[in-house]
Amino acid sequence: MRILLAVLVLILPLAAQPPQPSTFEGQPALAISSGKLDVLILATGATIASVAVRDDPEHLNPLWNPIRIARELGRTAGGGAGLGHFLCVDGFGPVSAEERAAGLPGHGEAHRQGFEILVSEKSSGVTTLRMSTRLPILHEAVTRTYRIVDDENILYVDTEIESLLGFDRPAVWAEHATIGSPFLEPGKTVVDISGSRSQTRPYDPSQGGRGLGKRLASGVDFTWPMAPLASGGTVNLRAAPAETNSGDHTTTLMTGREHAWVVALHPGKQLLTGWLFNPEEFPWLQTWENYPPTGKMARGLEFSTQPYDVPRREAIQQGSMFGAPVYRWLPAKSKITSRFILFHTRMPRDFEKVDDVAVEDGRIVIKSGTKALTLARSLPLW
C-alpha cells in the first residue's frame, strides 16, 4: 500500500502543478500539462515547441523540429528560432533591403525575442502561462497567454499586440504552425482544411524552391485539394507524396464561416492534431511544403493575415486577394488581439479523413463520414 501511495504522489502532481521549468533541445522552456496533453513552451519567442498525448506510447510530437532532423542527418543544427509553432509578428516573410539594414529579421521580431513570464499559475483546474516581450525595432508590445484545462486535449492561445507609436499602420501577422517528421510521413499523413478557394504560389519556373523542384504550376487558382501540376493534370494535396523531392507553396481563403480549421492526421499512429482560428483575424491558410529526398519533411499549416509570406511593402501594395484583406490595421497606441486553439489527440485507426470540425456547447466534434471524435472544451472559442 505504501508503494502504491508513493506512486500516486509522483503521478498526480503532473497534472496538478503550475507551469514547470524545463528544456527543449537544450533551450529553456516551460512545461504545462492537462494530464492528457503535455506541452512545452520556449522562453524564446513563446514558441510552442512540443505537444504530446500523455497516453501515446511514443509520446510523439507532431510539430517540426529542424534541430532533431539535422542531428539525425549528421548535420549541424541551427538555432531554436523557427521550429514548432512560432509567432510571426510583425512581419511574415522576407524583409526589404532598408528593413534588413535597420536590423529587422525575416518573419518579424517576436520569434527571436526572449519573453518575460507575467503569470504562471494553476487555479480551479486551469493552468495559465502568460508571457510578454517588447519588439525594439517595431515598437510593439506582445503578450501571449496559454491556458490548458485538466483532462482536456486542447491548448487555448490568446495573443495581444500593442502599438507603442502614435499612428495607425498595417500589421502583418502569422501563426507559423508546422508539422514535421516522423509524424509527417510520406504517403501516410494527411491534411484536411475548412477552406476550398486556393491558389498555387506564383514563381519563376527557371528557379527551384529552397533547393527543391516544383511539382505544382505557377500562380494558378484551384479548388482544394486538387492542385494543378506543372507537367499537366492535377494532384491531391491531402497527403505528402510517397516519393519526396519537391518544395511548393499554396494558399487557401478560409473566410465564410464562424471558425476555420486545419487538421493533420496519421491513421497508422492513431494521432490527430489541429487548429481552430477566427477567419476574421486570419483569412488565409498557407500550406508550405518542404519534401526533401531524405524524407525528413516539414509542412507549414500557417494561418495568417496575408496569402503568402512576402515583404510588408509587397503585401500592402497587393491590397487584397479573392476580395479578402491581406493585412490587419494596428491603430495608434492601441491593441489588437487573437485567439486560437490547438488540439492533439489519439484517434481510432479507421479515422482516415476529417470532413468537418464542429464547435458545440462544451465540446469540439471532429467528423469523418458517419464517425465522430469528441473533445471536451470548457473555455470559450473566441
Under CATH, the topology can be stated as Beta-galactosidase, Chain A, domain 5
**From the structure provided, what is the oligomeric state, counting identical versus distinct chains?**
single chain
Whole-number count of domains: 1
> Residue-averaged pLDDT, rounded?
93
Radius of gyration: 20 Å
Overview of the molecule:
The protein is mainly beta and 382 residues long. The protein has one domain (17-199, 221-228, 237-354): Beta-galactosidase, Chain A, domain 5 (Distorted Sandwich), CATH 2.70.98.10. The protein contains 5 helices and 28 strands. It has helices at residues 2-11, 13-16, 66-72, 97-101, 312-318; strands at residues 20-24, 27-33, 37-42, 48-53, 85-89, 116-123, 126-135, 140-149, 154-163, 169-171, 173-180, 190-193, 197-200, 221-223, 226-228, 234-236, 249-253, 260-266, 271-277, 284-290, 298-304, 320-321, 324-325, 328-330, 335-346, 356-360, 363-368, 371-376. The strands form 7 sheets. An 8-stranded antiparallel sheet has the order 6-7-8-9-25-19-18-12, with no helix packed on it. A 7-stranded antiparallel sheet has the order 5-11-21-20-17-13-14, with no helix packed on it. Strand 18 and strand 19 form a beta hairpin. Mean pLDDT is 93; it is low at 1-13.
Label this structure with key terms.
single chain; 382 residues; mainly beta; Beta-galactosidase, Chain A, domain 5; 8-stranded antiparallel β-sheet; 7-stranded antiparallel β-sheet; 28 strands; disordered N terminus
Structural topology:
Blueprint: H1 2-11, H2 13-16, E1 20-24, E2 27-33, E3 37-42, E4 48-53, H3 66-72, E5 85-89, H4 97-101, E6 116-123, E7 126-135, E8 140-149, E9 154-163, E10 169-171, E11 173-180, E12 190-193, E13 197-200, E14 221-223, E15 226-228, E16 234-236, E17 249-253, E18 260-266, E19 271-277, E20 284-290, E21 298-304, H5 312-318, E22 320-321, E23 324-325, E24 328-330, E25 335-346, E26 356-360, E27 363-368, E28 371-376
